[in-house]
């Protein structure tokens, strides 16, 4: 196999968020956050996800996957409808809190979008009080989300976007059945976005159970 020597060649222009169908306030917020060029996984997945497709996206840790699912879920969201419209499932509380932070930064462009984190290990009483106040977006671990669904303290009838983040790790941690039960309680008419650092057989199976004709974007490392 021959390799093209690109030394000295100009780097290809990195795709800009300006090429995406996002509202001006969102574009301005991205600039303020210092998000000028899209990362490769964002450039590959955002046009598909913003067009409404179900998506399986694989890219290594630190590649910007959070924004790749957050911008589409925000695009699907109606801020004037105060009900849970997006659910993000994460493997751990720490990751759920990181995702919540990033969602809040990206959602700043809109007035008053409320994001709530619901994870195991935190007192359920506080979560019940927060749920009583309502939220547009919920981020949490599968076990605790299922717990709230079983208690009827979380309703997903207004949900339009379901995200499975770090799907490989969720499976490693034994969450497959909890995830299946959560998905069963989500409306069928929804967009499902699955993100993962690796793509083992288990993740492919999981995707096959819940996704509708998904597009696949896989960025494997070459170095
Ligand atoms: P992953 O989920 O793939 O591990 P993250 O979504 O946590 O990656 O992103 C890693 C870091 O990169 C975060 O600090 C995030 O704010 C930053 N980031 C994401 N997208 C961009 C971008 N387009 N430009 C600059 N920084 C970005
Ligand atoms: Mg991530």
Task: Set out the fold topology.
Elements: H1 24-32, H2 40-50, E1 55-58, H3 65-75, E2 86-89, H4 93-107, E3 115-118, H5 124-133, E4 137-140, H6 142-151, E5 161-164, H7 167-172, H8 176-184, E6 191-196, H9 201-210, E7 215-218
Parallel strand pairs: 1-6, 1-7, 2-4, 2-5, 3-4, 5-6
Helix pairs in contact: 2-3, 3-4, 6-8
Written description of the protein model:
With 223 residues, this protein is α/β, with parallel strands linked by helices. It has a single domain (38-218), classed as P-loop containing nucleotide triphosphate hydrolases (Rossmann fold, 3-Layer(aba) Sandwich). It has helices at residues 24-32, 40-50, 65-75, 93-107, 124-133, 142-151, 167-172, 176-184, 201-210; strands spanning 55-58, 86-89, 115-118, 137-140, 161-164, 191-196, 215-218. A seven-stranded parallel sheet has the order 3-4-2-5-6-1-7, sandwiched between helices. Strand 3, helix 5 (124-133) and strand 4 (137-140) form a beta-alpha-beta unit. The protein is globular. It starts with 23 loop residues before the first helix and ends in a 5-residue tail after the last strand.
